[in-house]
Amino acid sequence: MNRQKIIDMIAKVYGVAWTSEAQLKDLERFAALVASAERERTWFGLTDEEIVELHHEIKVQLMGTYKTEDIYRAIEAKLKEKNNA
């Protein structure tokens, strides 16, 4: 995140675009740490076996009358579970 984006965010949150040079440097360091942590996070997808199991669970739970959205929600829940989100 560059300086201008940080300044724009400050203006949006506080209603002013001004911040001291020291505060701006601290915010730049913080933004760099956040970006670094996001890059380091390992993401886990679903295996073929988990997809088959999930499909079976959906069919059993909803007795074959499920909508496409139900499938998306079940996949989302499983991915959140695996990725601690």
Tell me what you see in this structure.
By secondary structure, the protein is mainly alpha-helical. It folds into two domains: 3-40; 48-82. It has four helices and no strands. Helix 3 crosses helix 4. The longest helix has 20 residues, at 21-40. The chain starts with a helix and ends with a helix. The model has no long low-confidence stretch (mean pLDDT 80).
Annotation keywords:
85 residues; mainly alpha; elongated
In brief, what are we looking at here?
With 85 residues, the chain is an all-alpha fold. The chain contains 4 helices and no strands.
Order of helices and strands: HHHH
Rounded Rg? 21 Å
- Whole-Å distance between the termini? 23 Å
Shape category: elongated
Number of domains: 2
Helical region count?
4
Kindly state the percentage of residues in helix: over 70%
DSSP, total strands: 0
Average predicted local confidence, pLDDT: 80
* Most strands sheet: none
Runs with pLDDT <50, length 5+?
none
Going by helix content, strand content and strand pairing, the class is mainly alpha
Strand content: under 5%
Topology (elements, then pairings):
Elements: H1 3-14, H2 21-40, H3 48-62, H4 68-82
